[in-house]
Amino acid sequence: MVASTNSRISDDMFTDEVIADPYTYYGRLREEDPVHWNEQYSLWVITRYDDLVWLTRHNELFSSAVFKNDPKPPYPTIYDSDLGLYEFVREYQSRQFIQHDRPAHLDMRKVVHGYFTPRSMEEWRPMVRDAIKDLLDEAEERGSMDVMRDFATPLPLLIIAQMMGVPKQDRPYIREVAEKLLYVGRGEPWRMQNFSEGIREMIEYVTPLVEERIVNPQDDFISVLARGEREGVFSREQVISNSSLLLLAGHETTINLLCNGILSLIRNPAQWEMLREDPEGMHVKATEECLRHDSSVKSITRIAAEDVELRGQVIRKADRIRWFISSANRDPRKFPNPDDFDLTRWPNPHVAFGAGIHHCLGATLVRVEGQEAFRAFAERFNALHLDTTEELEYQPSITFRSVKEMPITWD
Amino acid sequence: MARKLRITVDHDVCVGNAMCETFATNTFALNEERQSEAVNPDGDPLSQILEAADNCPVSAITVADAETGEKLFP
Ligand code: HEM
Ligand code: HEM
Ligand code: SF4
Known about the structure:
heterodimer; A: globular; B: alpha+beta; two-stranded antiparallel ribbon; globular
């Protein structure tokens, strides 16, 4: 089945090499076996741009109800003693609309979609700018910064908590719970204990906030979800599950965009200069290129809803599938010199946010955050340097492209 | 008589999210490639068409008055 010219491509997607550099491994699959059956994890690995676009737009063929419908055991493996916890996690996750198909998905998404239009996100721009300024002022006073810990982590939390109407004093607690939940997709066999503990704490935290908004609607986002319950679209459990989804959604992903983007700018001084010379003119394009070049989300799963043929392979009903954004966004058939980080690339039709009916709800918000962050760095600093001689380490996740830490200096 | 509209969908950016179709069912439809087409520029009331344009997550839709050229969205 594998058309490799020299050696068979290993199916172990969690080796240190693949985690450190997903581009070589998934790039090779893209060129040699774009619809690849991974024996070890019993799943299809899809790596070409065109196939991703086609697959994500054919939601009737590829189900998103993965937790509900996947008959196979979790991967990588977890402790047997944790299988009960896994069921709990599955049950909770399967209530979120990211894990639903039509028609239920549409009803749920409609409730929240209007809040995230490009126009309404513009209204948050001044607030985003202020939050960035405060964080960078603090960093300058200290004289050092770990981009991950001191900038990229607090920023999205400050913004989303303000949008959702979470009281200021509760933010450190949210962050703590988030850390447990953000083990998402990391390979440790004990990860279910953290998830289920985090989920329980999140439910406990969000429940009174939701109950209060049901009685007393305000103009925050939890109230928008609560309205969904009054209109009969959501059950109470779903309001709670989706509130916590949105509170943490995109947290890890936004952190990754900011860290990976700054890293690309550090490693490509000519591009950094271009941004510095014209932050106003370049901040939008720069953000899109950061989203494409070192994408926050590496891959997403689906379950085949029926037998589907793709590039001569037959994907059977109930087979699981993983589509790789990281290789699609580097597909030379779509992007000339795909490995180059090039801020002038335009248009830039990357699939960092997926496509089709599940296209990222938070994309409009993240774009504002990325644009303002990259602009602020370029306006404030002459040059950025990594403050370490070691190679940066990445979380062993198949889903997220997350650096563990990222100390920098500047002048 | 309702005004005549000129509606465009930029296929360089449309991601097939289908929100336009959801808000203005008679005006927009997804094609073979699952990208939106304005199949009937007076399929729905103007307010609904503008709501559809506003709800496009990638701002792919423009709406203008076909006779005067006046921009109605964005
Ligand atoms: C750089 C940051 C982000 C990236 C790269 C990203 C990426 C993605 C991707 C690839 C999907 C598609 C999932 C699928 O098809 O199954 C998605 C969906 C989603 N994202 Fe994001 N995301 C980011 C930030 C955010 C933020 C900040 C939020 C919330 C405010 C958010 C909320 C969502 C939701 C709710 C969905 C599910 C949409 C649906 O099923 O209709 N994301 N995101
Ligand atoms: C409160 C918010 C969230 C919680 C608590 C949560 C929790 C989880 C858990 C427990 C898993 C299972 C991981 C495993 O089996 O190893 C998972 C997987 C995953 N989540 Fe989330 N998640 C949240 C939000 C999101 C959002 C917004 C996105 C989209 C950007 C997302 C994308 C994913 C993906 C892609 C996976 C990998 C599962 C797969 O595709 O096989 N999650 N999540
Ligand atoms: S809402 Fe926008 S992205 Fe979605 S199908 Fe319509 S035009 Fe395309």
